[in-house]
């Protein structure tokens, strides 16, 4: 029992460490870009955003979740998260593209942005409702990421995504298709 929990924590730690490494690598170029002089009337075009979100009873299969996403190297995006459902817990990581649809940020960095998120990745499950104790899944999602920027480096964000995936149990013999949907809210930096 302890080895499965340790394995879950190790997976989560590796995903968070990878996301942090990409963010630290991308921040110097993103900060240099942010520091450029903007002429009056130009749009503020932030290249990087770190979003921290929570979801509660607004997802399928997830009941409660916490996630972090990074869009520092546009159009590329990465997301990691931890969530629970029923008697199980999952850790996931996704990569994909953040395609800007709307950007009304003004000279002062305030306004709204809306991105189309095309993501794919991996999900690890420990526990569950039936006899599956450990499972792995490949997932793909399509989502909308809305951010209301209150300051150049702070905003409120909402994310709605949907898609699906395939669970493989620990023996690799059974594949189960499942839907995935989530609404989450949080902060953007």
Describe the protein's architecture and organization.
With 189 residues, the protein is α+β, with helices and mostly antiparallel strands. It has one domain (2-34, 49-188): Porin. It is 17% helix and 56% strand. Strands 1-3-4-5-6-7-8-9 form an 8-stranded antiparallel beta barrel.
Q: Which architecture name does CATH use?
A: Beta Barrel
* First-last Cα distance: 38 Å
- State the major sheet: 8 strands, antiparallel, barrel
Q: Tally of extended strands?
A: 9
Question: Topology, please?
Answer:
Elements: H1 2-34, E1 50-56, E2 59-60, E3 64-70, E4 76-85, E5 88-103, E6 111-126, E7 134-151, E8 154-169, E9 175-188
Antiparallel strand pairs: 1-3, 1-9, 2-9, 3-4, 4-5, 5-6, 6-7, 7-8, 8-9
Task: Pick out its properties.
alpha+beta; elongated; 189 residues; 17% helix; single chain; 56% strand; Porin
Short description:
The chain is of the alpha+beta class. It is built from 1 helix and 9 strands.
């Amino acid at each position: 029992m302890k080895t499965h929990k340790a394995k879950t924590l190790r997976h989560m730690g590796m995903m968070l460490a990878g996301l942090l490494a990409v963010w630290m690598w991308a921040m110097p170029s993103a900060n240099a870009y942010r520091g450029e002089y903007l002429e009056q009337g130009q749009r503020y075009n932030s290249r990087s955003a770190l979003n921290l979100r929570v979801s509660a009873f607004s997802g399928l299969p997830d009941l409660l979740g916490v996630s972090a996403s990074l869009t520092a190297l546009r159009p590329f995006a990465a997301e990691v998260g931890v969530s629970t459902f029923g008697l199980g817990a999952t850790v996931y990581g996704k990569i994909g593209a953040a395609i800007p649809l709307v950007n009304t940020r003004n000279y002062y960095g305030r306004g709204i942005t809306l991105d189309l998120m095309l993501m794919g990745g991996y999900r690890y499950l420990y526990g569950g409702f039936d006899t599956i104790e450990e499972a792995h899944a490949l997932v793909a999602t399509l989502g909308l990421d809305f951010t209301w920027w209150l300051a150049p480096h702070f905003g409120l964000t909402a994310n709605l995504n949907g898609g699906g995936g395939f669970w493989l149990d620990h023996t690799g013999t059974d594949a189960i298709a499942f839907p995935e949907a989530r609404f989450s809210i949080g902060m953007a930096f």
